[in-house]
Each structure stands twice: as C-alpha cells, then as structure tokens.
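Something for you to look into today, if you have time. Just paste the record in under my message, thanks.
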Amino acid sequence: GDWSVLEGYQIKVTQATTLPVVGSPVVPQNTPVPVAEGWQIIPYLKNRPGDLEEELSSVNWAIIIVKDNEGRIYFPSLGIDQIGTLEPTQGYWLKSTSQAYLYYSANFTGGGSGEASDRSNSHFDLGGLNTGNNATLILPSGIVLPAMLNAGDEIGVFSNGKLCGAGIFEEASLAIAIWGDDPQTPGNAEGALPGAPFSLRLWDAETSEEINLQLALENGSANYSPNEIYVASALESLLPNAATEDEPAFYFKYYPNPSTGKVNFSLGVPSPAEIRFSMHSMDGKCVWQPANR
C-alpha cells in the first residue's frame, strides 16, 4: 500500500541505513494527526526538533504513555520524561485514553529544549539490546525507601537468567524498558519471552554488591507482555537494616504473608550467632520450628 504521513512505521534492518523518501513536504500545523484510543505509532511531522510537552500539548490530556525507539518514555501522570525532545523523521509509540487529534506547531516555531535521559549503566550493561518490542516497569518515587537506594545505584531486570532491562536510580520515579524476545530470530532468546516471569536485582554503587529485590505490582503479575505497563506498589530489598551501637544489623524477610502453602524466607545476622524462630498459624498455634542454628 501507500505510505501515510499520518502514521508512523517500525522497520527492522540488518544494519544502520538511511531511507530516502520522495514527495511534497508536510505542513505540520495544517496536518492534524488522528489519535485512536489505545496504542499506535504517531509520526513527528516537523523538520526541526521540538519540545515533547509543547508539541503534544493538544493531546496531553489523553496521553497515558509515549515511548521512543530506545524504550525511553514520557509518563505525564508521574512526571516522568526521559525523551525530552521529539526528533524529525522519528515515530513514537503512544497510548491514549480516547480519540483525539494531534496538532503540531509550525516548522519555524519552537525547538528542542527538553533533555533526553542518556545516562548509561556501568554495571547492568545491556550492550545495546533493542529487540523492537518492550514493556515498561515504573517504580514511583513514593515506594522507594531512601535507606534502600541511593543516587547512582542500578536496577537490573532479569528473565530466564538474561538481563532484559536496566535503569539508574536518581532519587525520582524510575522507568525501565524491559526488552522482549525478537520473534523473528527463533531459537535465540535475546529478551524476555511472552508470559515469562521477570525479577529485579539491585546493584549498590557504593559497595558494588548485588541484592535481589522483591517486587509487588499495582495490578497483574510480573510476567512479560509486549507494551505492558507495570507500576510497582511495593519494593523491598534483602539489605540488612543499618547497624547501630545498641542494635546490630539483622534482617528477616518472608513472602507471601499470610500464606496457605509454601513460604519463602531469608535472614541474616552480622556475625555467627544462635538463632531461634518458629512459624505460627493465624490462631497462634506453632506449626513449624526448625532445629536451633
């Protein structure tokens, strides 16, 4: 079929190249772009960079999320803007709450003023992973305890033992692209497979230690699905509590709680010691007590 200036397109190539396009230049202010409810790829019609919030102001009220080709996002409800500037010749994934029309400003107005988030991970290195499909994990700043993460710490997303996403904590809400498997390369799972569970690890920049994180989501489960948006409701680490002169470092984590079946737990003490603990039912009856350690 014919190309449409009102749509964006996703192309997979074997190497970086330039696609020549011949035709009449688009007048952006006279070319409203229809936005449908749900997901679509919108084209950026201007011939110069433009500030994302300004250029999308006509539909900002309906935007749930905008994603670029690198997995960076604009998520207005939590004030997250990793994209900053819209670039000529680029298309962007957009999810909308309803139908609307997007009106860009004229070519001779505006200009890019937003800054894209381009800080790269030093520990959880994705090596340029980009499979063409991803989901988004959002860690709102309100769920992250200051004692758990510090600026510069990194969070890695793993599925089936593979690193599929990574982000750097900067004392604000954090969004991480989780890259899925490329379905066009059967037998070679580059990212998370559809339906596969994923988990998180924290890299402490100060101690250079990796710690597993326990994640709870507002809705659904931590299983990969392309274009899904996962918003964390709770985040816990297995970091020991900070030691004081009167109270040495000690931690005990367990989940799920309460439980009708299997329970996972871990504990730690700062030095060898005798530990006694037991497990009780809701009515206070002791149901398990291991040998002293």
The radius of gyration is 23 Å.
